[in-house]
Amino acid sequence: MTAREALTKYYNQNYFGDRALTDLCVTARVGPITFPFPNPKQRRDVIQLHDLHHLLTGYSTDWIGEGEVAAWELSSGFPRKHWIGYFYAPITLIIGFFFSPKRIFKAFKRGRGKENLCHLDLRIPRDQLFNMSLPELREKLGLKNPVSTAPHSA
Question: Which of 21, 77, 97, 127 is deepest in the core (most CB within 10 A)?
């Protein structure tokens, strides 16, 4: 299964549409409260890479999982082209840390010294990245198997 196919399956399983790829404003829920937040072009350009990070690492889409992905992304870094990650990732890292500091710290350590898809996106055309399998992408990023905390699969 290609990364593109896995991502489509992931979006369908998690009831995500493609609004994050097109809308100028999206929402996030924290308990019963829904918060709108801006979705600028820079975020829309990188969101699929972020979502693939969930599949590659195994981190879920709840607030802890979002915090884990954010910690992993921050510790592996964002190249200048994807600077927006330095704006959004700390927010979700802090929320995730509130719920599970040990898991967030562990995810941060896991990303140290690694690259993420934002780095590969500079060297490999995105269409080519999306045609690779998840195991191929994990190998390029030096990731072992995904963690088993995630409720989704692809």
Answer: 97
Instruction: Count Cβ atoms below 10 Å from residue 24 Cβ, excluding itself.
Output: 9
Question: Would you state the structure tokens that stand for residue 121, as one six-digit string?
Answer: 């996106």
- Whole-model pTM above 0.85? yes
Q: What is 84-135 written as a DSSP string?
A: THHHHHHHHHHHHHHH-HHHHHHHHHHHTT---HHHHHHHS-HHHHHTSBHH
Return the residue matching tokens 């959004």.
Answer: 88
2 SS3 class? strand
CA angle 128, 129, 133 (to 5 degrees): 105
pLDDT at 145: 79
Q: Which residue has the tokens 């929320």?
A: 95
Q: What average pLDDT does the segment 101-127 reach?
A: 95
pLDDT-derived band at 20 (thresholds 50, 70, 90) equals confident
